[in-house]
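B., you asked whether I could sanity-check this one before it goes into the benchmark set. Here's the sequence:
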Amino acid sequence: MTAPRIPAPARPPTPTLRPTRLGALFLLLVVLTLIGCVNYSLSLGYGLTFLLGGVWVISAAQALRTVRGVRVGPPVPESAPALAGQPLSFRVPLGREGHSAAPGGALRLRVRARQGEQTHTLSVAALASHPDGGLTLTLLDPRRGALNLEGWRLSGLDPLGLWSADLPLTAETGPGELRLWVAPAPEAQAPAPPTLFAAGHAETGRRAAGQDDLAGLRPYQAGDAPRLVSWRHAARTGALLTREYDAPAGQAPALDWAATTGLQGPEARLSRLCAWVLAARAQGDAFSFSLPGTALAAAAGEAQVAAALGALAAFGTPPAVPAPPPARRSLFSPTSRETLPAGPLRFSLLALAVALLPGVLRQPVWLTALLAAGLGYAALRAGQNQGAAPRGTRRLPALPAAALALVAVLGALGLNAAYGTLLGQDAGTALLGLLIVLKAAETHTRRDARLLSLLGLFLTSTHFFHDQGPLTALHALLATAALLAALGGWTLEDGEDHAADDAPAPTTGLRRAGQLMLLAAPLAALLFALFPRPDGPLWQLPIQQGAQTGLADSISAGEFSNLAQSREVAFRADFTGTVPAPEERYWRGPVYELYDGLRWTQLRAFFNPTPVQVFGPTRSYSVTLEPSGKPWLLALDVPVTQPRGTYFTSAFQAAAYPPPTRRTRYTFTQQAARLGLNEDERRLNLNLQLPPGQNPRAVALAQEWRSLAPAQRVQAGLDVFRSGFSYSLTPPTLPEQNRIDAFLYSSRVGFCEHFASAFTFLMRAAGVPARIVGGYQGGEINPDGGYLTVRQQDAHAWAEVWLAGQGWVRVDPTAVVAPARIRADLGTALTQPQATAARPPGTLARALLRVDALQNSWNTWVAGYDGTQQRTLLARLGVQGVGSAPYLLALAALAGLALLPGLLLARRAARPRDPLARSLHDLGARLGLPQHPGETPTAYAARAGAQFPGLAAELRAVAAEYNRLRYGRAGADPAGVRALRARVRQVRRPR
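And here's what the prediction gave me:
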């Protein structure tokens, strides 16, 4: 005969997943940073935003994992009896079946305590990684009457508190609805009862139950005192029996409603009766009890006390309790303050300091000192939140709201004085850091502490306005991990009863934050590559740039020599084919056509562009331009393609408006060309103008060439510089008047702008239209990357002359004075002006070139990743474009694959570290029948054997082997453990 099959337990309900208020704010933070990244093309900002978005998604799975498998038992009152005005606590047992909680997550139990028209919400939470078998709910100030516990809800929180997986508890899955009775508050120092009940009186015909004479044994009833149980009979028969006693006459008090007639009001009378009942309970006396409509014969024991207190609780209509007045909210301070643990608060301040760190390199010193003082003061006060201050020291006071507001106003005025505005990227981020530190100084609640982490994450994203290099990315990762770890220390809510308020240690929090970020990394990488990237901003809001090195709007003697002192990178250029020779690397920038005797400036008048005659092979290259705050782009003569968002001026100058404020990559196609063959006569006349009365000697020299052909005049001008001139970064100062004459006939020492300015002046005086072109010349080939690095020290100025039939022709007088400047580099030109090649780089220079190659790869594929590169990537993948059906399908499929590791980890069941316990765990997993909490291996084998009769003998053998290894004298030897695990692997669940 087959044993009956035990029905499987009812399937638990599915939790409802929802973001918490903190989770909604976290999502809002992600959306705001994404909008900023889209508008300002912050490539690294995309990465951080998608990483935080991935953390938000993975946290949802961890919240579900926290509540999976949790079973809730019926509540057990811990404070009996329940009295009005005294805290009422009851224990709610918890158990978990076959699943592990998310490390660092929390379980929250909520229930509505309804009394008449008033409803209180009770909440308790415990860290799920530290289960203690149950949670204790406490109602601080219950009032007399019926107390209904309803609307039970168990919630699982992820380690950061972003998501809540809510599980409603009904009568089948948890406590359901429960009614308790709250007795009136006992009267303090109540007098003794006025009357006594006489045993054997004619009205009763029996004696009262007491403690003096043994009357016999009766079956045990719930509530009987353990000291009255006859344990000798229980050991012999296995049944619980309670001893009964008689009381002599005159020993049982009569607790009668009529005995309280001298008191005012029913509540006072009930309070005295309650005091009498509790006094009799404490003495163990029998008593009789009477209320209007209720009469209890004389008896002793917990059942008699419970009946009397229940009658007192249910008597009449409890008085209404007025609702407390609403709390006044302050604009600067929270509605309530709590004592925050010092450890998590200090770690939050430390994480915020890490997020603020890059600002030290660019903000005023006084602001850095102010921020450090604010964080330090908050950290010192955090240490005084717990316990009394040491003797002899004064407790630091909280900063008043007026003082914080004053510091904010003074700080804003100081930043406005330092930057000239509060809207630029430097001033704006500095002001944001100041306001966040002031918020940290007045942090009093867990809500404030969580807000600090969110503000710190937003502040971290603003650093990408200033730089998107690898070091900035590394700092962003470290700051994000620290801020997420700090956020995990405040998972529980303000004012919540904390059953296990042991926030994780900083190392534990950092490890959990790192795990979350690793799980979110695949999704972040996918969205970084495939999320649509627009080519232009959503709105035009120019960001103020600080002073940056670059070509000026006008030039005078000394402008380019100052640039030559800087080794900052101006741009990098990648060529698809061979890199052009040094004498071909003229990177065209601004064109200077107006001269007032001191400065050369650009022409603002409009001229129709003239056609360009191109010839010869094409050359394609990409320029990664560092931000300079200037609209012009740097390109070789002459680009024949126009990148998106750029234009060419009538002076054949590539430009972009608004000027790029970030590192930007442009792709050009270059071809040899003749410029301005049909140039406007008005422009040619403009390029012949000279200030009257200036430089008479130079004018006289040039006028001697007017009889020559224009090309010969150019050669005559170059011949002037072939001897007697020297190339130097520190030429003597030239006078404001007749400075060309002073240069040609006196100093004869200069830099490129001296030679270009003098040559252009001579050409105009000789009747040849001429102008100065600014830009860069040369560049250093990086052997590791095969690209050119052009630095600010490569800034150069040369001349252009207009010749009939040829158009504008480039003429560089510097190449006549110092050929090494064109064929080699600046350093070689200063020491060996006639050299034809640059010196080979040394060991340090080669190492720096390798570092620069890594920087260039980073700029190209990470910091400079844009919509053009994205479209190229999609084309290689065979996807038509952003928004197409194949694109959406591929994005959804890849997003699912990216989330798969995190989801699988979140659903993974726990495997105990102990090898023996792990064997039983694996056995339950193979059978699909997990071991219950507290269930012994023998009991589990019996239960599983009843479920699967064909495996009963094998399961009993596994349990016996487990008990031998666990409790035997030989202990758990490694060979025995391996044999047990092999035996478990042989168990197969019947189909």
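One thing to flag: The chain has 28 helices and 33 strands. Otherwise nothing jumped out at me.
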